[in-house]
């Protein structure tokens, strides 16, 4: 929800107060889907582990239970692939929206001919990239 993140745009006039701007975009849906699926996958893995270890005789005696377990696992694997792709696209959109050149282009004070604007630092996205890979 980048639209909730304010930042101050400086004014060139010495007396003018800085204006508050907001970033553009809401990329929360892919992230929420990714996290929700991760939580449900973890809970299913814990339930399956209890079933495998505690109720092994029930699991081996019932012929439908292993097939059901396999089908649910395949579904989770498919949705995990979809969620990772959605989060990857959401992350690339977040990177595009928070790129310093995009933010500078949105600032009206930087549109003058004699004005030179530059970013203080480039945001580090290493941990976000790792979240897509895992």
Give the terminus-to-terminus CA distance. 23 Å
Summarize the main sheet. Answer: 2 strands, antiparallel
Number of strands: 2
Uncertain residue segments:
none
Q: Please report which band the strand proportion falls in: under 5%, 5-15%, 15-25%, 25-35%, 35-45% or over 45%.
A: 5-15%
Assembly category: single chain
Which percent range fits the helix content?
A: 55-70%
Q: Strand sequence of the main sheet, in spatial order?
A: 1-2
What letter string, H or E per element, gives the SSE order?
EEHHHHH
| Radius of gyration over C-alpha positions, nearest whole angstrom | 24 Å
Q: Determine the number of helices (DSSP H or I, runs of at least 4 residues).
A: 5
Sheet/helix structural class: mainly alpha
Q: Would you tell me the overall average pLDDT?
A: 80
Q: Outline, from the CA principal axes?
A: rod-shaped
Give a description of the structure.
This protein has 134 residues and is mainly α. It has a domain at 29-57 and 64-97. It is 62% helix and 6% strand. The longest helix is centred in the middle third of the chain and has 35 residues, at 64-98. The protein is rod-shaped, with a radius of gyration of 24 Å. The mean pLDDT is 80.
Task: Describe the secondary structure blueprint for this structure.
Blueprint: E1 6-9, E2 19-22, H1 28-54, H2 56-61, H3 64-98, H4 100-106, H5 126-133
Antiparallel strand pairs: 1-2
Short description:
With 134 residues, this protein is mainly alpha-helical. The chain is built from 5 helices and 2 strands; from the N terminus they run E-E-H-H-H-H-H.
